[in-house]
Amino acid sequence: FSTRRDRDNTYIAGSSMGGLISIYAICEYPNIFGGAAGISTHLPMVLDAKTPSPDTVPAAFRNYLDESLPQANTVKIYFDHGNQTLDALYPPLQEKVDEIMRAKGYTSDHWETRSFSGDDHSERSWAKRLNVPLEFLLGKK
């Protein structure tokens, strides 16, 4: 199939750790990707409760975002999470990321964070709401 290979037609999306990788990709390659979606982005980045400081790794990622996000409103960035199972850990961490997005000047035309009550950390939940990030990323520019 023919494809358009330009930045305005190239997007990346992933769920859980794939969401982290997608957000990393938009930061590192904004000349390649016009947008990225992190679906149930695994912001805790660890699963081991024995981690010495539960916020050390997520804080490092937030520092990376603060230093590496593309210039505001030059790309589209989408985050979401549910509120069940592993996703129940995400709201306070996502709010910290949202603070960075606001401070960087991102507006609702280029950044969105959504919460889905009742959704868990599973392919079933992600499939159910996949249309939301796709419509945001591929909608009007």
Description of the structure:
38% of the residues lie in helices and 16% in strands. It is of the alpha/beta class and 141 residues long. It has a four-stranded parallel β-sheet with strand order 1-2-3-4, sandwiched between helices. Helix 2 packs parallel to helix 3 (90-103). The longest helix has 14 residues, at 90-103.
- One letter per element, helices H and strands E, the order comes to EHEHEHEHH
Low-confidence stretches: none
In terms of quaternary structure, what is this? single chain
Strand content: 15-25%
Radius of gyration over alpha carbons?
15 Å
Largest sheet: 4 strands, parallel
Mean pLDDT: 92
The computed structural class is: alpha/beta
What is the first-to-last residue Cα distance?
24 Å
Largest sheet: spatial strand order:
1-2-3-4
Helix content: 25-40%
Number of helices: 5
Number of strands: 4
Shape summary: globular
Pick out its properties.
141 residues, 4-stranded parallel beta sheet, alpha/beta, 38% helix, 4 strands
In short:
This protein has 141 residues and is an alpha/beta fold.
